[in-house]
Design brief:
This protein has no helices and six strands. It is mainly beta and 74 residues long. The relative contact order is 0.37.
């Protein structure tokens, strides 16, 4: 599980949990995940392995080619 601060939801904050993929750092791989808004951030639960998420790195959520939003890992 990864907690993200200052998350900017591009198309508005979703209600409940959202299925998506997440890209951490500059990797080319997106991991399957679920995410939900919490305060001004988001909590992302990864289904696939994510390599070395660390505080300060960006985490960006996608559904297909569409960006859902992003923020900074805490």
């Amino acid at each position: 599980m990864v907690t993200v601060r200052d998350f900017n939801w591009i198309n508005g904050v979703p209600e409940g949990e959202t299925e998506a993929t997440v890209r951490v750092r500059h990797t080319k791989l997106n991991a399957r995940c679920t995410a939900h808004a919490e305060g001004g951030g988001a909590v992302i639960s990864c289904i696939d392995r994510v390599c070395a998420p660390a505080p300060g790195q960006s985490a960006v959520l996608y559904q297909g080619d569409m960006v859902l939003g992003g923020g900074y890992i805490i």
